[in-house]
Amino acid sequence: MMTDERLLLATALVHALPGAQLTAVDNLGRRIVVGEHPSCDVDSCRWRSTLVASLEGRVRHVADGMQFDTVGGSLEPAATGGFIDRNTPEKRWFAALLPPCVAVDTLRNVELGMLPEEAVSATVRPDPELGVTIVGVSIDAPCMIEQLDQLGGDVAAALAVAELCTGLPVRKR
To answer: How far is C-alpha 142 from the geometric centre of its chain's CA atoms?
Structure first.
């Protein structure tokens, strides 16, 4: 059985952002909440390391029958794509099934419109064991912060296209 890719993405995101939580559901409808809050069933580091061990075949495949359900805690979906972490509301966060070098190249090619390049910053956190790269983008000029949602939407679209292109075989004519 294959692991739900959304579960991999959410695991990397929750592991990278301390206030974030994810909920997964097994095939019997039982829920497991992952995060750092004491009310969670499993902390994010333990969940991640167990998921990695199962992907590598070192333990029974713990994600068999587990499906991603939601993210929560400090995370909420951004209207234009990605997530807002209430701990860092001036950033938009994304998880992509991309190598970090591809994510960085993708970010470099995002059209910034009227934003000057020096006003935009990005954080790239690779999680090579899960095959996921976490990306955070922000606008460092307070007078331009109203453009953050537009930037977030553009980054979300660019990362989605890069994932699609990376995963598709290229046929030469």
So the answer is: 25
The answer to pTM > 0.85 is: yes
pLDDT digit of tens for each residue in the chain (173 aa)? 456 889 999 999 999 999 999 999 988 889 999 999 999 999 999 999 989 988 887 877 666 678 888 999 999 999 988 999 999 999 999 999 999 999 999 999 999 988 999 999 999 999 999 999 999 999 999 889 899 999 999 999 999 999 998 875 555 55
Distance of alpha carbon 24 from alpha carbon 30, whole angstroms: 8
Beta-sheet pairing, 83-85 with 31-35:
unpaired
Question: What residues are paired with 137 via a beta bridge?
Answer: 92, 122
CA–CA separation, 158 and 155 (whole Å)? 5
